[in-house]
């Protein structure tokens, strides 16, 4: 007797094991890496997502008036590796479990995450810095909240003021004025 | 009167999944000699790797091949860690082994399934693929993708296993075990499979050593060589497993060996889930890759994967080179095919589990 016959009969009785998808909802696990989602309210424009994206799906362009950055993630180029979401320090980028990505050919340039992230302002001098949304200040800037909101040069200045003692750095007892 | 003629198979042929050119010298129905010509799907990935930074190359190496898509980035990351002297957290080592073994089970079941298909036993093929689907669900549920796990990063793992996914994984493995045992029995006793595969494509031990074949092809011919044992990496020294070997060296023994290895892998995953320590699953912050060169090797489902990396201290590799198991195995096809029947060519080719796209990269 063929050893497989028993299995075959069992499989026949069990019925089809394929997903009934278009006619019934398909099961999607919570960890599924689908369409990427960009939350502009959390983005600090650090650019690590663009740095690690092997597919070159992420583009960041400063808009003409310099007020912010146009953030574009092309879903058609994305390979769903999830590295961007992994390295995003603020979790502004996440991989959703949405896999419904079918679209008409004519819409291929419209299938993208498109957001505009406005630059922030230095809390001291008012110059242009990366955005510092309130939610992120709570999460990342807890150690030195004041300094987190400064531009690099103001930050350096405040650090220098903090670390340098009030007295002169070098005292010379002998004045040589001969 | 016997006549000899040349039968060209490929580069694109219904019997081949991937482009490969075989120049088969045939006498009647018997193959007398085979010449191979490769190079039809060259993708220039080594050149691409030199234009991408260390992080982007994790994703790139993962896409060298779908079935070993965890072994490639794992070996690449290991080479980088060797170069930079990074010590990967222990939990990450366990997580890496789990990902590797899950991929191995799925890859082996795929190959034995395809063998049934080539024999002409399509209902068994579908049954094997359905069993494999249990592992595919694990990959989708735990890692987030059915083929490219995206499990690794330099200095650790990107995923973690919590209580929920551990339970899910164990349940799936428990579902898998009796089915694989059943499958093993079918492949071992089914007269159709046995007639078509036993004594076909024999690679004797001396030829296996001469051609330096690796992976299940070598082990089915009696070469007890497994990188997990010979040059242990990650946490393999702490795990209990037996390197499967066989002496027959034919198509059937290679398939049986793969099923037995899948059973071993199930036990390896269970051991890892049980002994995995708490702790971080990756290094904090970004790693710096210093100037220098390093190698790493690991046991992919098909055999030994070897990576060489050279860095000049920038964030892009100066050279990234890898050798895949199929490259070592396909020359041995000349031995396996000599004297076989024309109808057995696809079966023999499949029995080395060829991955042309990874070899030509």
Largest sheet of chain B: 3 strands, antiparallel
Distance between the termini of chain B: 45 Å
Q: Overall mean pLDDT score of chain A?
A: 84
List low-pLDDT spans of chain A: none
Calculate the mean pLDDT score of chain B and round it. 89
Structural class by SSE content of chain B: alpha+beta
Q: What is the β-strand count of chain A?
A: 7
Measured by DSSP, the beta-strand proportion of chain B falls in 5-15%
- Hey, roughly how much beta strand do the residues of chain A contain? 15-25%
Outline of chain B, from the CA principal axes?
globular
Q: Give a count of the beta strands of chain B, DSSP E runs of length 2 or more.
A: 8
Question: Which H/E pattern describes the elements of chain A?
Answer: HEHEEHEEEEHHH
- Helical content of chain A stands at 10-25%
Whole-Å distance between the termini of chain A? Answer: 116 Å
Please bin the fraction of helical residues of chain B: 40-55%
Strand order of the largest sheet of chain A: 2-3-5
As an assembly, this protein is: heterodimer
Q: How do the SSEs of chain B run, as a string of H and E?
A: EEEHHHHHEEHHHHHHEEEHHHH
Outline of the structure:
The complex is a heterodimer of chains A (178) and B (361). Chain A has 6 helices and 7 strands, in the order αβαββαββββααα.
Explain how this protein is built:
The complex is a heterodimer of chains A (178) and B (361). Chain A has 178 residues and is an alpha+beta fold. Helices cover 25% and strands 16% of the residues of chain A. Chain A has six helices and seven strands; from the N terminus they run αβαββαββββααα. In chain A, the strands form three sheets. In chain A, strands 2-3-5 form a three-stranded antiparallel β-sheet, with no helix packed on it. A two-stranded antiparallel ribbon of chain A has the order 1-4. Chain A has a two-stranded antiparallel sheet with strand order 6-7. Chain A is elongated, with a radius of gyration of 27 Å. Chain B is an alpha+beta fold and 361 residues long. Helices cover 49% and strands 14% of the residues of chain B. A three-stranded antiparallel β-sheet of chain B has the order 1-2-3. In chain B, strands 6-7-8 form a three-stranded antiparallel β-sheet. Chain B has a two-stranded antiparallel sheet with strand order 4-5. In chain B, β6 and β7 form a beta hairpin. The radius of gyration of chain B is 21 Å and the shape is globular. At the A-B interface, α1 and α3 of A face α2, α5 and α6 of B.
